[in-house]
Queue: 3 jobs
Job 1
Amino acid sequence: MEIISSKITGKGQITIPKKVRERLGLKEGNTLVFEVRANEAVIRKLPTIDPEWAKALRPTLNEWEDTLDDEL
């Protein structure tokens, strides 16, 4: 396991080292999520959603469009 470091700026920002970006396939516009555990943070790349897949999924989500659940 290789340890790579980066410093926090006065604005609380960090630069993700090039080696890390390359290994994780990070590109401009990617979203990262932070999971905080006790004394550490795990950073993960949030998978991007394929717009065509999301468009195809839309018709299957109609159960939230009816008002039957509003009365419960």
Job 2
Amino acid sequence: MKKVKYSSHLIARIRIRKIPFNLPRKIYIEADEYYLDNQTLLFIALKKVEHKGKIRDFIVAFKETGKVVEIITSHPLKPYQKEARVRSGRWTKL
């Protein structure tokens, strides 16, 4: 298994969005779906999780280099966002 590293941006977002610290790592490891974001060239891991009392699609954007995975950011998606990004070609399913 690759080493999972959190970016300083992700750590700030965890605090601001009140995301449990281990949730981004869990989403990366246990994702329901993976995509390539053709705009940012980052990988996207998506998983349905409970956050703030709601079940939502939550993503982590990450890059892989060698034996290290760096998670760049994490956030919940609005209901239409996944479909819009796939339909527009921004996200390609892996």
Job 3
Amino acid sequence: MVSIGSLYSTLSADELLEKVIPFYQIGKVKNCILWESGFNDTYKIEGESKDYILRVYRFGRRTLDDIEFEIEVLLHLKSKSVSVSYPLERIDGKHITPISTAEGLRYVIVTNFAQGKPFAYDTLDEAFLYGKHVAMVHKATEGFNSTRKRQILNEGFLIEAPLASIENFSGVSPEHIEYINQLSSKLSVRLATVNSHELDYGFCHGDFHGWNAHASLSDVEFFDFDFCGFGLRAYELSVFRWSARLRGKEKERWEEFISGYRSIRSIKDVDLDLTTIFMAIRDIWLIGQHIDNTKVFGRNWMNTDYFDKRIKFLKELESEIFSA
């Protein structure tokens, strides 16, 4: 018999219900269900009167400081009356539960379940509402600071790290690697021409792509702050525009999103002018994220078709950026 280590294990919902849930002040629980597996694992806890979310952070992906920063900002937003899925306290007043798994130490937090429904974008009002509440997050975090170390959403994180992953990935052709490298250099040079002191900088959710939120008639509740950190708000806003363009809905959603944002908080044209550049950077970053997770997600889907589509999208953005 051969003993082999584990990179990623799916934890038993029944054992989480039995061994972890009792630490939290949520009363009687009827069930615990594996809800979604992704960059982290999400379990839905069905209570007698309310539902909750239990998140299990993947081994080695987030440090304790990373998670504590996320908890701090969520509690800060809650204190400012911004609707977010906030972390619940344990009976001992802590928020994080360390657990021993096959691959090593992992961490658990429990949050409330976001009220409302996922956005359908059937009307322009939804893009306006989403933009309005993104601005509320930015406004509420002005002046927010933490003693915890956290990733900065800078060129090192958004460009250099993914480039290193792409260059070391055997599933991408040398031609595609060369193109992405050349485009990344051009994007960095263009960014360097902008006076960074003119740009809006602060806390960013990092993944405001139009989902990661549930909506009711007048409110939006955000969740999944896993990619949060400090960075340029031009990048933050570009993520929504990038997502809308990928779905062929940029014309319908982007203008309304910005109108909603500006109904709460100002944003300068110099920031908005950079969103096209950051859409390309976001796409390169995502390729790197996908590559980094192939050991868990598998790599068969990251085939020629995947890279051809990504390159096509990037070339369309390149033409738009550098013809202006």
